[in-house]
Amino acid sequence: MLATALKKASYEDLYSIPDNMIGQIIDGELFAMPRPSFRHSNTVGGITDEIRIPFQRGRGGPGGWIILYEPEICFGEDILVPDLSGWKKERLPKPPEQNYTTVPPDWICEVLSPGTFRIDRIKKMRIYAQFGVSYVWLVDPIAKMLEVFRLESGRWVLLSVNSDNDIVRAEPFHEIEIALENLWWE
Question: Reduced to 3 states, what is the DSSP secondary structure of residue 78?
Fold first, then answer.
């Protein structure tokens, strides 16, 4: 019996997906995902508001970070688009010339959706660990939960699980308090 080899997806394949979708290549397979829901977008906006002003702009916080919404990141042959990513400025001092970067972020935030939570939790977290991303936040806007993970010796360690209207200090942004109620669409 002959097995048919699957063609590995390439960067050019990303141009074949509809404009209203987000394309990612994971383990050689092209994934096309719909644009985020309103609840999802609201949560991403809430996290951006809480973190970007003090950590990227330096107002009311330490500064020193670049925080980006849905950046395209090449992790070897995998091309991923996290909801939010953050780099310490010294690791990404200027924008790349192309639409993507090959510099792994220091922090990633994935907002979970019913259609993507398995990919985010299983496939993408494995790749993030492989490429040395130091922190991952998984945020579930339906369950109103924030899980904070730190990479230690190549393995994810769960630092905290927070929910509902908790006020948290979450690594790597533990210098500020984050009111989770600002992340949920009521």
Answer: strand
> What CATH number matches the domain at 37-67+82-183, 3.90.1570.10, 2.60.120.10, 3.90.180.10, 3.40.50.720?
3.90.1570.10
Report angle CA 49, 137, 96 to the nearest 5 degrees: 70
pTM: 0.92
d(CA 112, CA 141): 7
Q: 184 vs 43, 66, 78, 123, CA distance in Å?
A: 6, 24, 31, 26
143-184, pLDDT tens digit by residue? 999 999 999 999 999 999 999 999 999 999 999 999 999 999
Give the distance from CA 8 to its chain's centroid: 24
Which backbone phi and psi does 73 adopt, to 5 degrees?
-125, 130
Query: How long a stretch of residues is the chain?
Result: 186
Report how far residue 6's alpha carbon sits from residue 115's, in angstroms, rounded to the nearest whole number: 24
